[in-house]
Each structure stands twice: as C-alpha cells, then as structure tokens.
Amino acid sequence: MACVNCFNHVDSLYWWEGKVCEEKEIVVLLKTSRLLFKKLEKRLITLHPYKTPCIYSLRWLHTGMDYKQWLKRELASQSLR
Predict the structure, then answer these.
(1) Which domain holds residue 37?
(2) What is the spatial distance between Cα 77 and Cα 68, in angstroms, rounded to a whole number?
(3) How confident is the model at residue 64 (pLDDT cuts 50, 70, 90)?
C-alpha cells in the first residue's frame, strides 16, 4: 500500500438484515496494485469489525504519469522493506 486517504464521520444509510441502518463511518481509500489487492483484502477482512465490510477496487483508466511512477516506486520499495 502506497497511500491512505481517510474521510471521517461519513453518514451511511444502508439495508442490513431487512432493516435500514444509519451509522457514522470512516471511508478509507487505500492505494495499491492489482497484484497486492487480494492480500490487502484478506487482511482487511480479518481486522474489520463488520461481518460484511465494503471492500472493492477501482480501475484507473487514466492516471497522471508522475503519480503513476510514484505509486510504482513506493509499491516496489515496500517489497524490499
């Protein structure tokens, strides 16, 4: 994982077991590679307090070249740590 963005105090409304629930949640964006996603997903599932946490990936169709290079460098250097 190269970067994390946290959005605190997000109002969430959702259906759960036939009822509408309302919670204050934290939305977290984790930036990683496709190759590392499954490993990250398994770890998040073990740490998350929800029975069914919302974990999904977004495919970047277009990314600034400088940012893309930075992300690749960070992910590569983590495998060396």
Answers:
(1) 3-78
(2) 14
(3) very high
Q: What global pTM score does this model have?
A: 0.76
- Find the mean pLDDT for residues 51-58: 92
| CA dist., res. 40 & res. 27, Å (int) | 16
Rounded mean pLDDT of the chain?
90
CATH classification at residue 38:
3.30.70.120
In this structure, the number of other CB atoms found within 10 A of the CB of residue 26 comes to 10
pLDDT of residue 79: 61
Q: What single-letter amino acid sits at 12?
A: S
Domain count, the chain: 1
Say if residues 73 and 80 touch (Cβ distance below 8 Å).
no
Dig out the tokens for 49 from the structure.
């307090």
Tokens describing residue 27: 């939305």
Kindly give, in sequence order, each residue whose CB lies less than 8 Å from that of residue 33, ignoring residues fewer than 6 positions away: 71, 75
